[in-house]
Design brief:
The protein has a domain at about 40-89: Rieske [2Fe-2S] iron-sulphur domain (Rieske Iron-sulfur Protein, 3-layer Sandwich), CATH 2.102.10.10. About 10% of the residues lie in helices and about 25% in strands. The protein has helices at about 10, 20-25, and strands at about 45-50, 50-55, 65, 80-85, 85-89. The radius of gyration is 16 Å and the shape is globular. It comes from Sorangium cellulosum (Polyangium cellulosum).
């Protein structure tokens, strides 16, 4: 009998840092990623603590930041466009 295979997301997931590790506290804190004046409706790529991210403003003008690469296609969302406040590859 074969073992069930874990979903790809679980296989690729990195182990979470223990709360006593410095990186766990670092990631749980607030940091300035970029100046508010540089953030508009077009996606802006950035890297924060080695993590590739993308930022933009939603329909209400609120800043949004997330992983840069599309989970479905692997495409860089920084090369995408914002439609109705949502980012598309």
């Amino acid at each position: 009998m074969s073992k069930p295979v874990a979903p790809v997301q679980e296989q690729a997931a990195e182990p979470k840092a223990k709360s006593s590790e410095p990186t766990a506290k670092l990631a749980a804190s607030w940091y300035i990623a970029l100046r508010a004046s540089t953030l508009g409706k077009k996606p802006v790529e950035l890297k924060l603590f080695g993590q590739p991210l993308v930022a933009w403003r939603d329909q209400a003008g609120r800043p949004v930041i997330m992983e840069r690469h599309c989970a479905h296609l692997g495409a860089s969302l920084a090369d995408g466009k914002v439609v109705d406040g949502c980012i598309q590859p």
